[in-house]
Write a structure and sequence with these properties.
heterotrimer; A mainly alpha (280); B mainly alpha (316); C alpha/beta (443); B: 316 residues; mainly alpha; MetI-like fold; 2 domains; two-stranded antiparallel sheet; 2 strands; disordered N terminus; disordered C terminus; C: 443 residues; alpha/beta; D-Maltodextrin-Binding Protein, domain 2; four-stranded mixed beta sheet; three-stranded antiparallel beta sheet; 17 helices; 11 strands; globular
């Protein structure tokens, strides 16, 4: 009996302990959502707080986005298209590289691994000018392709797929070869299904990176209708007056769709991430 | 196994010839396969990274004005020895240090708790703690700026005054600004790192613990001799990405002060690069900062990977 | 597009070889057609692109474009207006000018970034032929900040005459009047009265903005550089001004460090809006910030000339600004220049600058025109008489010496000098200015 009680007490203590990070994680977003319902002058005056001033609440800021700020939805569409393509392409290429780094032994392997780590270390800012010149040469300025192309290899994803693939059973490869499978057949028919959780997890992370990417799209995209969400929103903050009403409600609407997608997909996502093996 | 027929039906007709070609051709050999797998990577690398990096290295030896470019040898590098650069290096190193100190043990503890049998509502906690990483730095920055505003009614200060402390000018002071930057990064990355550690924890075979229990090991012994060794690969991974991300940090500082902070308390190496290259139109000097940063990170990165024994089992 | 196509094609080939049988990854329909607006009926309108970092200027140029097409039906212009965040617009412009492709036809460049674009082979078009015929009607010093070697490259947006904003209510409570302040000594005396009667500080002082320090040294006929472009930041006069600001806070106890430290900070708006200080020294364009972010002060603020250092001295300085330039990548340079003259140099356009933007137009011969007397949101907030006041000080504005080190000078003042002397008190004014000046000289 007392052992039972002790166990319960332990659970409660753990729950209480975990409540701290939970609150820290969720609270600021909640506060932002509340703030988006208030006029920005209120925000100017008192900063971000959680006083529930119901009498001040209105959906005016959102109405503005849906009426006068319609370009907002162009940004939304662009963000979705860019995120989708760069995520899918990055997944394909990164998994191929990660897989071959883990499963094969070949000349130049060390160099490729070195290159992957190198890309991970390069601060993107130093590449901007030459990369921009390349985009001009490719006539890719102000196109989706210009944003997507340099993003379709993602060192973090390659690294992750390599670590994950190390945990795949190599015996399967040999038996498949005996059965007459080609190397590509092995990857497609046998290993790909095993890599599914890794695809799920990296897919979400890559989509997130792409959705929130700022610096590069900013350099490549020009026309107002071509901008992505984060850039469009940042454009609302100017040194000669910030448009807080739209900024806050726009921010909430940027995060909201991902949170909704996440809530529906999270079980699959987290389970898959946790089911995987990251080995080094 | 005749899966080749499948390949034909699903692929476009362009590829039929390829698929029909003899099995033992070079293209299908085990030797060539890895190269085919990494080919797109190499194309992108040489296209979009090799050329820009080489170009940057060349620029770092030049003085670049529109239409007037000349080589000036190591002058740009000589100019690096100035207090602003040291300050940026100091800030960046300190930031990286703190993110490593916070973003490795805390997520690890949380992951362990969420992995115990006693814990309830695991999925709920996991999801909620992960949510901040869904926001962009820009949005997170807006939130932090407003929460830590100087006004007494802003959240952080009203919290302090509730406990009887004075208001703090969060952004004005080196230590508190560092707190905000590290806090912002921690807030956004805590959940991701926690998930990485959970990944590692769930891969520890249960039998290991059972066997240990039979041998009479206590909780601490199990943690010391099973959990820690098994988590090493994940920890190396998290440490590596945290280290690299720390030295490349820019946005977390930018959202508070943009480029110019009082006494440069918010200046990072990338911020310094950005300021020189784009705000002062010193692309050559900016490139030199970038190359130096790359060298610093490469050295630290490879020391770290050597120490943690990363490279030992590549491609077995 | 074709290079892109080949690249894409060869990539696709590799994927499809490897992933033969994989259903996705196939048709990548990346659309390059960004121009969503189709031409709407105008006869062969010349397309032009305009970049700005200030959303308000979009409305202004949209209006100018409409008026131009009405006035010149034979040479219509189709202006594509784009606004970017401040830093990013200037960076993108720099990249585009360095690369020789991708720059707009017409662009707004902020005064502190302007020198960056006047280095090497200048990529902006000289505007002398459109500026010189009009220059006598303008506050001439506003062209010089966008010029180099006798050539003008930018058309100014406003005078940016620095003024003093006084909170009438606080003054009345203390039984004093803003009109009693003629010199900076008066400023201290009145400030002490206000402090003792109401407890309110006289002046908030920015530690991350040079909008007080810079006009105040300009009033003393000083500057960061002399006319030859040599660094004079650490001269005696500048030191005295910095000492004055220091004394306001720590000796006379009537100055206060501005919350947030910067004139665009949320904290500062809140502080002022609550009647936190009796006065503010800022360029006149700051009036729009009062109207937008400090609604509670409507009807309580008055705009006056700045105090002078001694009776009869200069009572203002021209600060900040945006120069509109034509790049050498413009498709039709002559047309772009003509349009720019129409949009920013004509009498009519300068009236529009006031009507649409609320700025003090750089062309002083419009200051007494009736359009500038009409009630609008600014007169509702600050009362009438703004331009009569500006007329009175237009000859008291010194030109500024802008060099390629100007952007860095501003940064040094805003990051180190003011912060270290006023907030941290780790350096004396002389030390801080000397250190900054030495750093500038070493560049």
């Amino acid at each position: 009996m007392s052992r039972q009680k002790q166990k319960k007490l332990g659970t409660i203590l753990l729950l209480l302990f975990m409540l701290i990070p939970l609150i820290i994680a969720v609270f600021p977003l909640l506060a932002l959502t509340l703030a988006s319902l208030k006029p920005s002058t209120e925000l100017m005056r008192y900063g971000l707080n959680i006083k529930p001033q119901f009498e001040l609440w209105s959906l005016d800021n959102y109405t503005y986005l849906f009426t006068e700020g319609r370009v907002y939805f162009h940004w939304f569409k662009n963000s979705i298209i860019i995120s989708l393509f760069s995520t899918v392409l990055a997944l394909i290429f990164s998994s191929m590289v990660g897989y071959s780094l883990a499963m094969y032994r070949f000349r130049g392997q060390g160099i490729v691994m070195f290159l992957v780590l190198l890309i991970m270390m390069i601060p993107f800012e130093i590449l901007m000018l030459p990369l921009f010149r390349m985009m001009i040469w490719l006539k890719a300025v102000d196109t989706y392709a210009g944003v997507i192309l340099p993003m379709i290899i993602h060192p973090l994803a390659i690294f992750f797929f390599r670590q994950y693939s190390l945990g795949l059973p190599k015996e399967l490869m040999d038996s498949a070869r005996i059965d007459g499978c080609t190397e590509y057949g092995i990857f497609l028919r046998i290993m790909l299904p095993l890599l599914k959780p890794a695809y799920g997890a990296m897919g979400i992370l890559l989509a997130l990176f792409s959705w929130n990417n700022f610096l590069w799209p900013l350099v490549v995209l020009r026309t107002k209708e071509m901008l992505t969400l984060p850039i469009g929103l940042a454009g609302l903050l100017t040194p000669y007056g910030n448009n807080y009403d739209v900024l806050i409600s726009g921010s909430v609407l940027t995060v909201l769709p991902i949170i909704i997608v996440f809530i529906f997909a999270q079980k699959y996502f987290i389970e898959s991430l946790s089911a995987g093996a990251v080995k080094g | 196994m005749r899966q080749d027929s499948n390949l034909i039906t699903k692929s476009g007709n362009v590829l039929k010839n390829v698929v029909y070609s003899p099995k033992k051709s070079l293209f299908y050999s085990q030797r060539l396969a890895p190269y085919v797998f990494i080919a797109p990577f190499l194309v992108i690398f040489f296209g979009f990274y090799f050329y820009p990096v080489s170009y940057t290295i060349i620029m770092s030896f030049q003085e670049i004005l529109p239409g007037q470019i000349r080589f000036i040898g190591f002058d740009n590098y000589a100019r690096l020895f100035n207090p602003t650069f040291y300050k940026a290096l100091y800030n960046t190193t300190l930031y990286t240090f703190w993110t490593i100190v916070i973003l490795i043990p805390l997520p690890l503890i949380m992951a362990i708790i969420l992995n115990t049998k006693k814990m309830k509502a695991k999925t709920f906690f996991r999801a909620c703690i992960f949510i901040p990483s869904l926001t962009s730095t820009i949005v997170a920055g807006v939130i932090f700026r407003l929460m830590f505003a100087e006004t007494e009614t802003a959240f952080a200060n009203s919290f302090l005054s509730f406990f009887g402390f004075d208001s703090v000018n969060w952004k004005q002071n080196g230590a508190t600004l560092m707190f905000l930057m590290v806090g912002l990064a921690s807030w956004r990355w805590m959940g991701v790192n926690m998930i990485y550690f959970l990944t590692g924890l769930q891969n520890i075979p249960k039998e290991m613990y059972e066997a240990a229990e039979i041998d009479g090991a206590n909780a601490f012994n199990k943690f010391r001799h099973i959990t820690i060794p098994f988590l090493k690969p994940v920890t190396v991974y998290v440490l590596t990405i945290t280290l690299f991300a720390g030295y490349k940090m820019f946005e977390e500082a930018y959202v508070f002060w943009e480029i110019n902070s009082p006494g440069n308390i918010g200046l990072t190496l990338v911020g310094y690069l950005y300021k020189e290259a784009f705000q002062y139109n010193q692309l050559g000097f900016g490139s030199a900062i970038g190359v130096t940063l790359l060298v610093i990170v490469a050295i630290l990165g490879f020391i770290q990977l050597k120490l943690t024994g990363f490279s030992s089992n590549g491609g077995k | 597009m074709s290079r892109l196509f080949y690249l894409g094609f060869s990539m696709l080939l590799v994927i499809s070889i490897v992933l033969s049988g994989c259903s996705s990854g196939g048709d990548k329909k990346v659309n390059s057609n960004g121009n969503s607006e189709a031409s709407n009926g105008t006869n062969k309108a010349q397309e032009m692109t305009f970049w700005t970092f200030q959303g308000l200027h979009i409305d202004f140029f949209e209006d100018a474009n409409k008026r131009w097409n009405e006035a010149n039906p034979d040479r219509p212009i189709k202006l594509k207006l784009e606004s970017f965040p401040y830093d990013d617009m200037h960076n993108n412009l720099l990249l585009a000018l360095q690369s020789g492709v991708g720059a707009p036809d017409i662009v707004d460049i902020e005064v502190n970034r302007f020198p960056n674009f006047l280095q090497g082979d200048i990529q902006l078009e000289p505007l002398n032929d459109i500026i010189e015929p009009e220059i006598d009607s303008f506050v001439k010093s506003r062209f010089e900040v966008y010029g180099k070697d006798g050539q003008y490259y930018g058309a100014p947006t406003h005078v940016g005459a620095s003024v003093a904003f006084y909170n009438k209510e606080i003054f009345e409570e203390a039984g004093v009047s803003p009109d009693d302040i003629k010199t900076y000594d008066d400023f201290i005396e009145i400030g002490k009265v206000i402090k003792s009667k109401t407890g309110k500080p006289m002046l908030p002082i920015f530690t991350n903005g040079f909008w007080e320090f810079y006009p105040m040294i300009s009033q003393k006929d000083s500057d960061f550089f002399n006319s030859k472009g040599e660094v004079t930041l650490d001269n005696k006069k500048n030191e005295e001004v910095l000492q004055y600001l220091y004394d306001l806070i720590y000796k006379h106890d009537i100055g206060v460090l501005a919350p947030g430290g910067h004139h665009e900070d949320e904290e500062f708006f809140a502080f002022m809006n609550d009647g936190g200080a009796a006065s503010l020294i800022m360029p006149s364009w700051y009036a729009s910030r009062f109207v937008s972010y400090m609604p509670d002060l409507a009807g309580k603020m008055v705009i006056k000339p700045m105090p002078a250092w001694k009776e009869g001295g200069n009572r203002s300085a021209g600060m900040g600004g945006t120069g509109t330039a034509v790049t050498n990548q413009a498709k039709d340079v002559e047309l772009a220049k003509e349009f720019l003259a129409f949009a920013k140099l004509s009498k009519e356009s300068n009236i529009k600058i006031y009507e649409l933007l609320g700025f003090d137009p750089p062309r002083h011969d419009v200051w007494d025109s009736p359009e500038l007397r009409e009630p609008n949101e600014f007169t509702a907030y600050f009362g009438d008489g703004l331009f009569d006041m500006l007329m009175g000080i237009k000859d008291e504005i010194n030109p500024l010496n802008i060099t390629k080190l100007t952007p860095m000078t501003r940064d040094l003042i805003e990051t180190n000098v003011l912060h270290n002397t006023l907030r941290e008190k780790t350096q004396t004014p002389a030390e801080a200015l000397k250190q900054a000046a030495d750093e500038l000289r070493s560049r």
